[in-house]
Amino acid sequence: MSTFIIDAVGALSTAGTLFIVSAGLTLVFGAMRLINIAHGSFYMYGAFLVTTIGAASAGLRFWLAVVAGCLAVGLIGTAVEVGVMRRIYNSEHLTQLIATFGLFLIFADLALKFWGNSSRTVTAPAAVDGRLSLGGATFPEYDLVIIGFAAVVGVSLWALLQRSAFGWRIQAAVEDPEALQASGVNLRLLRTGVFALGAVLAGLAGAIVTPQVAVAPGMDSAIIVSAFIVAIIGGLGSVAGAALGALIIGTAETIGTVVAPSWASTFIYLAMIIVLVLRPAGLLGIPERAR
């Protein structure tokens, strides 16, 4: 039982981080049909900004650094949308991939210039830096912080999409952007807001995970692969699907680590293959032809 509890908490913590990142990725794709490889860069920048702003203290300054990092990444995302993305919304997905991959490389080079190639660490705030015991199992308190953040993000996104005018406009933009614009809605501004929100979510995931990982160049490429797998399993464009996909990948990774540590990554890709064979559009995705 103790081993099960430890593995379950670890799986939920991993799933929580993946969900926050993937939610921003799938939200942008769902609203704008945009495949953004540079999404991983926003995650990395959120982590690096926290190490820069909040590394000197693990108390209140850490949480202020998380907020500041998210806002800074949101501003970067806004600049990227205004300067680049607006010009490729109606392009083919291959064009979007090439353009965002170019941004990905640029952001990676800038990170090396500003922060170097050495890894950095951040200590969690003392209030959540201990260990909890449950059913004979002991695990880090900070795992529960990440799980809590993921739950809050999930509920907030649901409320935003289902209970607010902004969410209704996002859904209308997916179905018929021309009609929405004809009704007087500033579609350009709406897209900017959605893209900035996606960037903030990626930055938030990078910021809150800093006490548990080594912050270093290359974490952008690692997370974007996992985020795409989660989004594909859940169905690109579905936030609920991203949550389900994150749980599946978090569980698959944990099982792989326990059963066959050297083959742990194989379990992730195996889960993706099984889902795509059964449902090519993802678990909660809608086939393109049905739109």
Structure description:
The chain is an all-alpha fold. Helices cover 71% and strands 3% of the residues. It contains eleven helices and two strands; from the N terminus they run ααααββααααααα. Strand 1 and strand 2 (137-140) form a beta hairpin. Helix 1 runs antiparallel to helix 10. The mean pLDDT is 88.
Short précis:
The protein is an all-alpha fold. Helix content is 71%, strand content 3%.
Number of domains: 1
Strand sequence of the main sheet, in spatial order? 1-2
Q: How many strands?
A: 2
Shape descriptor: globular
pLDDT average, as an integer?
A: 88
Percentage of helical residues? over 70%
Overall SS class: mainly alpha
Outline the biggest β-sheet: 2 strands, antiparallel
**Poorly predicted sequence stretches spanning 5 or more consecutive residues:** none
Number of helices: 11
Strand content: under 5%
End-to-end CA span: 46 Å
The succession of helices and strands, N to C, reads HHHHEEHHHHHHH
Radius of gyration, rounded?
19 Å
Task: Outline the fold blueprint.
Layout: H1 2-32, H2 39-54, H3 60-83, H4 93-115, E1 131-134, E2 137-140, H5 141-163, H6 165-175, H7 177-182, H8 187-208, H9 219-234, H10 239-259, H11 264-278
Antiparallel strand pairs: 1-2
Helix pairs in contact: 1-5, 1-8, 1-9, 1-10, 2-3, 2-4, 2-8, 2-9, 3-8, 5-6, 6-8, 9-10, 9-11, 10-11
Keywords:
291 residues; mainly alpha; two-stranded antiparallel ribbon; 2 strands; 71% helix; 3% strand
